[in-house]
Amino acid sequence: MEVEVFLGRVLHVIDPDNFWMHIGTNDHFAEFLQFEVNLEDFCRLSGNYIDDINEIYAGQFVLVDCTDNGGTWKRGQVSRVDSIQKCADVVYIDYGSTELVEESRLCANVPDEYLQFPFQALCCKLAGIQPIARSWTSRAVKMFQDMTVNQVFHTILLPSGPGWFKVVLYRQDGDERSIAHEMLAQELALVS
């Protein structure tokens, strides 16, 4: 049985048991890049911001203006609305991260074509290791973040539960050691 190897980019890390990735092929990544360009064009031309934070609700899909920080528009889902502070907690469905967003950056009018494109952030767990204590040490989390965030890996998916993926990550430079093995070598994890 041949193992299928994908490309995977780590986007957002909480710890090695809880992080988000884009997983796919070069064509898949190119398709998402084009989707983001189209989304950016739509948002730039529409300028359709909300006028009142009470126009949105928890669970609603929104578009968020992230251009002030050199970013682009992003798709998100509202997890909580704070009417007093005039902001909303938003989960970025293509990146896995969250942000408290002011109402002046929110667009609630999301055309169906931008919701039909599959959400890109996949919740993952690094296969083969476990914390050396009850939970991951801050040193282990920092090392994992430094080794992985915004890096592209050869990625193998292993059987896992619904809503998340167990992954094995190998660098693209030909090094045969997985990220899990690097964590073990640094004495930051135990074999699971």
From TrEMBL:
Gene3D superfamilies: 2.30.30.140, 2.40.50.90. PANTHER family: FI02030P-RELATED, TUDOR DOMAIN CONTAINING PROTEIN. This is Tudor domain-containing protein. InterPro entries: SNase_OB-fold_sf (IPR035437), Tudor (IPR002999), Tudor_domain_containing (IPR050621). Residues 55-116 form the Tudor domain. SUPFAM superfamilies: Tudor/PWWP/MBT. Pfam families: TUDOR (PF00567).
